[in-house]
């Protein structure tokens, strides 16, 4: 592990979430996709497992398979859910899931594959009638403060608006069933614990740690200042032939 990753996991160790979200997002996505109670669900890039309980609640007679490429996150999720026979957690690459799944859930991570490429990759992992639910950074207004634009140009140059996300969905051979803007409470569920951890670790004891703390502090500040112009958009999509 590089020094930067060591600093990252020092900051993020045991945080409840690795991105904005709340149980009602999962419930809305499952309802929009008409996910059955017996569904086979994949949580792709599950992080520390913040959405696992809500996914299980959406399919109480089904099974949830969760994976993440970072063993530290999988270990944290296992500590919470290892005794649940309705869940399987393992280290894995979300680009290599096989299924079949009735719902693939991906909270804030599909951009690592690219929306169109990721959806094409997951097509063969979907069961007949299956859906994908994913959240994606999104511009909500055309009036974008330069500070926010500069931040996202560095973090995610491909960031677009709702129409741009839908265009990539259609380019992958899918159609959108519905979209939902993540609420302020979903963001607070992430930034609240993160900001408290930043405060507890400040000042950083190494240059790498200080940089990670500064980056996290700036990320939260950008959202708090400009949250009317951007956020996360949750989309539920299905292949065109469904």
From TrEMBL:
Methyltransferase domain mapped to chain residues: 41-130
Source superkingdom: Bacteria
Record keyword Transferase present: yes
Keywords from the named record: Methyltransferase, Transferase
Pfam families xref list: Methyltransf_25 (PF13649)
Signal peptide range in chain numbering: none
InterPro entries named among the record's database cross-references: Methyltransf_25, SAM-dependent_MTases_sf
Keyword Methyltransferase carried by entry: yes
GO biological process: methylation
Residue spans crossing the bilayer: none
GO MF term (any one): methyltransferase activity
UniProt-recorded name of the protein: Class I SAM-dependent methyltransferase
Organism: Roseobacter sinensis
């Amino acid at each position: 592990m590089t020094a930067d990753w060591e600093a990252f996991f020092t900051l993020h160790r045991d945080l409840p979430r690795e991105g904005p979200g709340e149980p009602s997002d999962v419930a809305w996505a499952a309802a929009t996709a008409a996910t059955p109670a017996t569904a086979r669900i994949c949580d792709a890039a599950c992080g520390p497992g913040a959405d696992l309980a809500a996914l299980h609640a959406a399919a109480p007679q089904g099974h949830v398979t969760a994976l993440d490429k970072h063993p530290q996150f999988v270990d944290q999720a296992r500590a919470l859910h290892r005794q649940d026979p309705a869940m399987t957690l393992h280290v894995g690459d979300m680009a290599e899931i096989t299924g079949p799944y009735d719902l693939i859930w991906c909270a804030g991570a599909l951009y690592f594959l690219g929306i169109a490429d990721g959806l094409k990759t997951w097509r063969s992992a979907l069961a007949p009638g299956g859906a994908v639910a994913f959240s994606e950074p999104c511009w909500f207004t055309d009036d974008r403060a330069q500070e926010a634009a500069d931040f996202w140009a560095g973090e995610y140059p491909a960031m677009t608006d709702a129409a741009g996300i839908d265009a990539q969905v259609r380019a992958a051979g899918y159609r959108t069933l519905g979209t939902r803007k993540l609420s302020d409470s979903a963001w607070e569920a992430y930034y609240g614990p993160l900001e408290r951890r930043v405060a507890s670790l400040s000042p950083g004891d190494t240059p790498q740690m200080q940089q990670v703390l500064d980056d996290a502090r700036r990320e939260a500040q950008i959202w708090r200042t400009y949250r009317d112009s951007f956020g996360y958009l949750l989309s539920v999509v299905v292949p065109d032939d469904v």
